[in-house]
Amino acid sequence: MGDSNFLEVPDDSDAPFENMFRQARAELDDLFKSMSKAPEGIKSKTIKPDPGFCVKLKDKDGKKIFINLCHTPHLPEPKGISDEELLKILESEDPTSYRVPLSLGLPHEELDKSGIPCTAYDVIINGAFFDKIQQNDLFRNFVITVAIDGIEDKYGVNPSEDDYVILKNKLYLGVMPEHAVQDRSSPLISEVEGTVTEATGGGKFNVHLTRHTLPGQPDTLVARISLPGVKSANEVLLDVGEDRIVLQAERHSFDIFVPCLLNQDDSQAEFNVRHHVLTVMMPIKSSA
What we know:
Elements: E1 4-7, E2 44-47, E3 50-58, E4 64-72, H1 83-90, E5 103-104, E6 108-111, E7 117-126, H2 127-134, H3 137-155, E8 165-166, E9 179-182, E10 189-191, E11 195-201, E12 207-212, E13 220-226, E14 237-241, E15 244-248, E16 252-257, E17 260-262, E18 268-272, E19 277-287
Parallel strand pairs: 4-7
Antiparallel strand pairs: 1-14, 2-9, 3-4, 3-8, 5-7, 6-7, 10-12, 11-16, 12-13, 13-19, 14-15, 15-16, 17-19, 18-19
Helix pairs in contact: 2-3
Organism: Ornithodoros turicata
Family: Belongs to the PIH1 family.
Domain PIH1D1/2/3 CS-like: 217-285
């Protein structure tokens, strides 16, 4: 397989796989991530999203927080799946494999209906997907959970996820600012097939490969590996080769060839201890 590169895999208990609804990553991931500031080399454009509905909740200190869920055609629509498929994903070892592109706006200070200062956060999703969640309680609750996790991860707030209310007569709290989103002309993520030459395990596990493309940057191959029973990164030995990924752990091992050449030196990995998911990010040199 050419040269090998053993990676240190840190535990990441605060990674974006927090609970059954928790999302992305912030990953390269995050397609579900905030796009209020575009990375270098990627053009951004200013949009004025449409208001959707307003969610009221409180942080752990009892202060009111409002989430304005907005929508725009300028964000990509997530993959269309059924209720049964979403439930299956949420109950799986890797509940964040379903990604929702969203943009988190900057927090803005507002007054609630009693004139008490509060903080509002704008969360923007695709317009067609918004129409779907309006008619579907399961997907709506999923998106609200994703939005709550997003503002928690990005802004350090500590909202109560179990006690929120969708306001009936208010679509938006405050005055909507303009939002900057990344201007993407081509798909960001494509599925990749790998060839597993050897795999063993005491329980079920799966490997999901995707290729992430950003303008002006090298493509990146992302492997998301579910490892039930593995409790710490110290139990994982990971070897990234030129065109191959080899993993060994107490209960699992596999050897997979990938259809591209990898930049081993710049590869990174992190292990989520809550959901037993290893994420490996590998810059691609060229097609094999």
